[in-house]
Amino acid sequence: xxxxxxxxxxxxxxMLNQLQQCIPANQIxxxxxxxxxxxxxxxxxxxxxxxxxxxxxxKKEGLKITIETNLVEVDFLDVTLNLxxxxxxxxxxxxxxxxxxxxQSNHPPTxxxxxxxxxxxxxxxxxxxxEEFDKAKGVYGTALNDSGYDHxxxxxxxxxxxxxxxxxxxxxxx
Length: 174
What we know:
Elements: H1 4-19, E1 28-31, E2 34-37, H2 44-60, E3 73-76, E4 79-82, E5 88-90, H3 109-125, H4 130-146
């Protein structure tokens, strides 16, 4: 339906509220139909009890859930997160090839001009370092070239960029 995403968000917020019985609110996150929780210093039996409580909460609402526990590395949305090493890098499902609008399409020129930069920035943001960026950039660069763009993807460390200073306008006082 037209309001499917909004409905999903409302149900997600309700379920997050219900899950606060088992997991503190600052340790769980949700995006549409994907959720991620970090429960530090929990052993196997404790995690199994929490898993059963969560399953019961969802079952009470008529929903089903798949839960994986004791993970050190997880694929969440389009990022792989590793808790041991602290690394994060782009994730794509198997046999998933990116497809971008063609350079010759009738989209607004600003969108067409900004697309390679947006892809470059997104890849840089979800890569913890240049090595991880270089591992992932091949598929995205090929997809850009296939769409008619002549752009070389390069890692930009977003942590090094300084925030833009706000413009200070003088007040007109009469």
